[in-house]
TrEMBL record, chains A, B:
Gene that this sequence comes from: panC
Compartment annotation: Cytoplasm
UniProt keyword list: ATP-binding, Cytoplasm, Ligase, Nucleotide-binding, Pantothenate biosynthesis
Organism phylogeny: Bacteria, Bacillati, Bacillota, Bacilli, Bacillales
Function: Catalyzes the condensation of pantoate with beta-alanine in an ATP-dependent reaction via a pantoyl-adenylate intermediate.
Alphabetized SUPFAM superfamilies for the sequence: Nucleotidylyl transferase
Record protein name field: Pantothenate synthetase
Length: 281, 281
């Protein structure tokens, strides 16, 4: 497993691959890789000649009171996951490599970044868009793979890729879940045993929403109320949001015509978890 | 002279050139090309295998009261300039090709975009950074050529290219002037005969600033006062700014240590013209 820490070395590798007419798949991550990431790497390896995984805990996408310092890290474990799932290279830069002195450029978006996680994390998506732009320019992939768990992020990256004319195909990949339904997340590591049990309420709530939809409920107020009620049964849960939104615009809708996304963000103790489910016939 | 209007066709051409291992030089313009643009094209043709000139009057960089609708255009003339000076391709997209429905992403910058033209044109550089990001992603040049006449823009593009990790070298090229000193600009077209004569005051003022500097004046207040006095002799001139700034940060300085940029923006009648001169030993 080749590990590259500088932009210069990364560019040289990319140049060699492109000169050899090889396609590049890219999986941007913040590390502490789990089976969700592994599924992205495997899909990239199936579709592309070479797979680059970036591991970078991006300070710009954390708010001042968020968990930047405590975000879990384990590069040795991550190397193993990358190797076993078919990646050829890990891009693992220091913060100073991506944000040199005098750094002052930003990529931002109207619309899609409002609502859902954008409400409680107002600067988050500016950090995501900026770092993904940088990583796209450094890795120059043909395809980039993102998890559907971060549904708003995926919609934003798709929009940004079109808007800024990146010559890159964005591939969204399904959520990977624990046997009880909990969506895999590096932040699950924060949960103690009691909290881990409680965290089941997110997927349980979403499944109730999906059942209602499958029973022809199209009124989003009714769906949200049922999801909220299930999550609120859990004493350790504090709801940030329960929303039903248009899957393209990420804006709340009152009635579901074709498809919708039901998305939740819930604090379990101090840990903020997100999850979502697609509602469509 | 090949003229391409769609992103798709541009990408295909770029792919063919890159597959043939040819380097691409890029000259982004708003068209109505003059000898300043021609000098950029010639330099690109000297340094690169293929030269792309984009011609796009970018609505996003015009303020609501500015001259978007009246901005001069002459694509037939522009084709000739491109051909004569060594370009192979003109990228000439419609507005709807670069800004499709739902467009909502932006590239912005702190610091460098404040002051000088950023003060009277607050959204201008957001539009410049966004469209240049798009054009860089579409044309994927090895080198991009910009005129020193737009000194703040050049500094911003250099900063953005580093910050967002574009694999592109930015080349700044000298100002081209009329025999009387007037910096070439597509907007000179707006000037009637009387205004054209009056417009001499910009370069005349800057030259007085340079003379003072060459006579060891290092106090920027003295330099600005002399430049302003010369420009103000011209009854048709209304000064937007006269500034002496650090050439990297574009922030005003009081005393010149090594080098500085003296920059002016002046309305001649209704036409806003800019010019600048580098002060260094």
């Amino acid at each position: 497993m080749k590990l590259v820490t500088t932009i210069k070395e990364m560019r040289e590798q990319v140049r060699r691959w492109k000169a050899a007419n090889l396609t590049i798949g890219f999986v941007p991550t913040m590390g502490f890789l789990h089976e969700g990431h592994a599924s992205l790497i495997r899909q990239a390896a199936e579709e592309c000649d070479k797979v680059v995984v970036s591991i970078f805990v991006n300070p710009m996408q954390f708010g001042p009171t968020e968990d930047l310092a405590s975000y879990p890290r384990d590069i040795d474990h991550d190397k193993g996951v990358c190797l076993e799932n078919g990646a050829q290279l890990i891009f693992f830069p220091e913060v100073s490599e991506l944000y040199p002195d005098g750094f002052s450029s930003f990529v931002n978006m109207d619309g899609l970044t409002n609502g859902l996680c954008g409400t409680s994390r107002p600067e988050h998506f500016r950090g995501v868009c900026t770092v993904v732009t940088k990583l796209f320019n450094i890795v120059q992939p043909d395809r980039a793979f993102f998890g559907q768990k971060d549904a708003q992020q995926l919609a934003i990256i798709r929009r940004m890729t079109i808007d800024l004319s990146f010559p890159i195909e964005i591939i969204g990949c399904p959520i990977v879940r624990e046997p009880d339904g909990l969506a895999l997340s590096s932040r699950n590591k924060y949960l103690n045993e009691e909290e881990r049990t409680a965290a089941h309420c997110l997927s349980a709530g979403l499944n109730i929403g999906k059942s209602l939809f499958e029973n022809r409920e199209r009124d989003t107020h009714a769906i949200k109320t049922a999801v909220l009620a299930r999550i609120s049964q859990e004493a350790l849960a504090r709801v940030d949001y329960v929303e039903v939104v248009d899957p393209d615009s990420m804006q709340p809708i009152e009635k579901i015509d074709n498809a919708a996304l039901c998305a939740v963000a819930v604090f379990i103790g101090k840990t903020r978890l997100i999850d979502n489910i697609i509602l469509e016939d």
